[in-house]
Amino acid sequence: MGNEIINNEKEYGSIKISNDVVSIIAGVASTQVEGVAGMSGGITGGITDMLGMKNLSKGVKVELGEREAAIDVFIIAEYGSNITEIGKKVQESVKNSIETMTGLQATEVNVHIQGVNTPREGKKEEEQRVK
C-alpha cells in the first residue's frame, strides 16, 4: 500500500498522494451513504476492529495511475434497503470525494455488496419466544 503517485509537478516540486490516503477518502465517502451498514474488510480488518483501532481504509482497494484512480469498495448493506440504489449512491459519493479532494480522475468505482446487516433486536425477541 505504500505506492505513491505524482499528482502535480510545478516549479516548486511535486505532490505525491499515497494509496492509503485515497483508500481512507473512499472508505469515509462510502460509509456516509444512507443504507451502508459498514465496510467488509476481511480477516485483517476484523482483527484491527477487535483491537479497538479504527481502520478507515478497511474494505477499499485502490489502484493509482499518473492522473487517475480505480477504486473497489466492499460494503455491507442495511436490511430492507434498495441495494442497487445504495451501490449507485456509493459510486457517486466515492467518485465526487476522490476527484474533489485529490484532483485525480476516478475512472472506475466498483461496489461489491458483501452482505446484508439484519436487525439484531428481532433475533433477541425470537430467542426469548423459543425459551
TrEMBL record:
InterPro entries: Asp23 (IPR005531). It comes from the Bacteria. Pfam families: Asp23. Belongs to the asp23 family. This is Asp23/Gls24 family envelope stress response protein.
